[in-house]
Amino acid sequence: MKALSKIFLALFAAVCLPGFFMPLTPAMTAAAAPVPELEWTLSARDVRPGDEVEVTVSLKNYADTAVLELLGLQVDVRPEAGKAEYITGSAKTLAAAAGSQDILSTTYKPESQTVIFLFLPTGKEGLPRTNTALFSFKVRADAAITSDTAFSLVCTRLAVIDADGNHLITVSDHPSVNIHTGEAVITLNGQAPAGAPYTDSVTVAFDKGTATIKKDGGPAVPIDSGYVISAGGQYEVTVTDAAGNTAVAFFAVDLPQKTVLGNVSGSGTLSITDARMILQYLVDKITLTAEQLELADVDGKNGVTVTDARYVLQRLVEKIDKFPVE
Ligand SMILES: [Ca+2]
Question: Tell me: the pLDDT tens digits for 9-22?
């Protein structure tokens, strides 16, 4: 009995006597000195059903000697029931003991699904500050989950004892992990991608993740949801969510050549070039195809004449707002 310090007894009582430490009550810290906080390091925050996550629990700020030295520590953590489970045998103690007789362990209790880290010094030496990582374990997201959700790691108890024998209970954050069950939904003009080529502009949208687009097998270019395609081509859109699920849509956009009356050059808009081409045709400097001749005859009579070229120029300077043939 003499070998056990008062602190050991205090912590022993705290751990073993029900109600001595209430789980997760608001902070009732009286000490002025900073209290160590738990810090969580997760191997992933976005996973798929059945994926494993390695969790490391450390003491934030504990390397700082202004933070109270810990002469007793218990941390209980359980993965949120029904969404994730502890992976058997994965608990590891990372903290180092100060004395050879110290109790330092990380165990798993199947009945409560709880991982328990315990540090009880047998001497006066507190938890060493050199290594602030306490313990690690692995959890697996439930493989049977069928819709997107998240699970928490619930810290059901964080009990610490400082050199003055103060019992400190600190509420810590509960880190959560997102479970992504399926790939994003890609829509084109608000609907599922169609097999037939699109003959008008296409608005690409997706409900989650990040996307890239490739045109005619070219480089992948990042796009946002709502991106509008207004050029013809073969397209490939890939959407990747935070867990790595991917959705891909292949489709073709086949925009018909727009014909503009008088636009002999085929540029899509009327310009001085069109008038010039008509005049060049009239002096036999160039030849025009049947389609071009049809577009050039803007007054609809006498075939293509200098009058047509004049009409194009008048239209360009807005002397007329439409051609006689319209
Ligand atoms: Ca004409």
Answer: 444 444 433 333 44
Two tokens at 274?
């069109």
- Domain boundary, last residue among 223, 253, 283: 253
Report the separation in Å between the CA atom of 318 and the middle of ligand 1, taken as the mean of its atom positions: 19
- Using the mean position of ligand 1's atoms as its centre, give its distance from the Cα of residue 260 in Å: 16
Q: Note whether 202 and 227 are within 8 A (CB).
A: no
Last residue within a domain, chosen from 118, 150, 179: 179
255-288 in b/e burial notation, b at 16+ Cβ within 10 A? beeeeebbbbbeeeebbeebbbbbbbbeeeeeeb
CA of residue 56 to ligand 1 center, whole Å: 83
Report pTM.
0.62
Indicate whether 244 and 149 sit together in one domain. no
Is 49 found in the same domain as 159?
A: yes
